[in-house]
Every structure is written in structure tokens, then in C-alpha cells.
Amino acid sequence: MQVKRMPQNPLLQPGDIAPLQKNYTVECLLNPAISTYQEKVLMLVRVAEAYAKTNGKITVPYRTATGYNKLHHFDETDPALDLSDARLVKYDGVTYLSTISHLRLMESADGIHFSEPSSPLALVGEGPYETFGIEDCRISKIGLQYYLTYTAVSEFGVAVGMRSTCDWKTFQNHGLILPPHNKDCALFEKQIRDTYYCLHRPSGLGIGGNFIWLSQSNDLLHWGNHLCIAATRKGFWDSERIGAGCAPIETETGWLMIYHGANEQQRYCLGGLLLDLNDPSKVIARSATPIMEPSESYETSGFFNDVVFTNGHLVEGDRLIIYYGAADKVICAAEFSIKSVLSSLAYL
Ligand code: MAN
Questions:
Q1: Would you say the CB of residue 306 lies under 6 angstroms from ligand 1?
Q2: Could you tell me the sign of the dihedral formed by the alpha carbons of 332, 337, 340, 344, in that order?
Q3: How far apart are CA 148 and CA 75, in angstroms?
Q4: Which of 55, 73, 160, 342 makes a 20 to 30 Å CA pair with 180?
Q5: In terms of C-beta density within 10 A (0-12 exposed, 13-18 middle, 19 or more buried), how is residue 148 classed?
Q6: Of 278, 274, 241, whose CA–CA distance to 341 is shortest?
Q7: pTM, 2 dp
Q8: Considering the chain, what is the average pLDDT of its residues?
Q9: Is the pLDDT of residue 66 over 90?
Q10: Of the candidates 23, 81, 76, 31, which has an alpha carbon nearest to the alpha carbon of residue 49?
């Protein structure tokens, strides 16, 4: 599979964006959503901020339901503290996030050079279910409306929130469309037989796993007819967890969905799934080997190593430009041929 990484990679790194809050630093830029609006490429980048380090203290930031930032301080030497995963702070049986994420709007004329618009826009967690932040947004354009589906994190769990806009200035908050534990929600941009579809990733506790599900809706808010369409595969690159990228791409042979898969070593790669055009619950083909895996230094080493993770792309004819978070630290892009991706899949 030929992958053309942009020579300008990384396109964005933490120093390129100012923190939203005083006393915070931008620790990582991750997993950007992508769309186009008025001749511009728009990116909603996930900005993960950490509280400036103070002597001997580990600080966990979170918002209250009414918006003020609260902080938890833990003593670094406290034996009840578990920092074995850089993304998490575990204390006395309770799990917090080490950073708090919001979504920042960036724009570009060429899809390579991104900067903040003259009127900056930051979407932050709102209400009780987003107090630990909002992450990994997907943008689907349906009609004139842009729908943002993202991971909403709070003490109540990890769920899917949705907001929408038609002008990128005012947003409607639709609340949680899928309850915990769920993430990686991508809406199809077209109805199929008068029905809306989405892909999402609930997680089974004990029984089940981290699989991709397909659901239907008449209004984009209430989802039903849930079907599990793809599971993890033992011995493969996607043996531990899988999750949809952004809106599936309509091709002559089916809906091409780019997805991430991780193995037991938490190595995140990308692959493709091809779904039937008229019945997307039917999987026609799937990547036996990844179409992209972490190999460049900015992908193998960062905040969380060995990660290429996508939730945003652009399609121009046969050109597929995948934007991705590399090692949970910087933003990159790579170009693929859709035909080559399709012919690399193993037909089932
Ligand atoms: C999870 C999510 C992503 C992150 C990967 C790799 O899937 O938290 O945001 O990029 O893990 O750490």
C-alpha cells in the first residue's frame, strides 16, 4: 500500500496553539476532525491541556457542570496513585484523565498550513457529562448542517455527544446521543432508504469487546436497530480494539470506512472496511494488514507511542487525504489513492 506522508509533517504541534486557560500548558494536539466550508479546509483539533506542574503534586483538571475549572491535587509519592498510563491518573480506584481536552477551530486554504481564524473558536465541555473534556470529534455534513459527534468524558463515563452548526459561529448542543461506554461515532452523510446511519463503538465489560456497531435513526438523535458489524480479530493488527474514522466514503463498490485498530501492545494502525451500498450492515471486504502503521519518529514516539489515529479526511476524486494524530502528540496528514485502498482489501 502506497502511503504518501506530507513532507510538511507534522502539520501542527503543541507549541503552535496557545493554551485556553491560564496556568495550563498545551501538552498534546490529537485526532483532528476535518471538513470544508466556504472554500476553506476546517479542522477541529483536540487540544489536551495539563495544569502547570507544581512541586511534588500531580494535578487533575476538570470542569464543573456550570463551567468553572476545578483541580484535584495528589501527592506524587502517595502509594494510592497509579500513573502507569500517561493518559490517565488513577487514584484509590477512581480513574481521571491527566489532561483536559477541548476542540479548537483551525482553518487552511491548502489543507497543509493551518492557523486559527481571526475570530478564534474553542468548543469546551458543557454540563455534567463533559467535565473531563471533549475529544476526537467527527464532522459529517448532512444538507447544509455540520454535525459534530465527539467523545464526552466525565465521572459518569465515556459517551458520545453531538453539536451542530451551519455557520461555524453558533452551535446547537444536542446532548448525549449514545450513553457510556461509547465513542468513535461517525454519521453517514447520506440517508440510505430514507434512514440515517451511524457507526459507533460501545465497549463490553468482561463479555464482549471493543467492536464497531451500526445503528439507524430517523432524526439523528434517537438511535436503534443496533448491529455489531465488525469485531476485533485474534492474531491480527486489530486484535484488541477497533473504531470508525469519520463519515464513510461512497464508492462504486460500497461504503469505504477507514478505521483504527490496536493490538494487545496498544499499537494503533489504520485499515479499511467496505460496506454494502444499500445495506451497510453487510461487510464486503476488510484490511488483512494495515493500510498505514506507525513508522516515522513522530508516530512511534510522543505522548503515547506507536499511534496513528484518524477521525478526519478529505476526498478529491481518487485522492484521499487522511489527517491523523501521531503518537497522541502532533497532527499529520498522508495521501492515499482510494482505488489502491479498495484493491488492498481482502474480500470476504
Ligand atoms: C484511545 C483514545 C484516542 C487515543 C488513543 C491512543 O483510543 O483515547 O483519543 O488517540 O486511545 O492513545
A1: no
A2: positive
A3: 38
A4: 73
A5: buried
A6: 274
A7: 0.97
A8: 96
A9: no
A10: 23
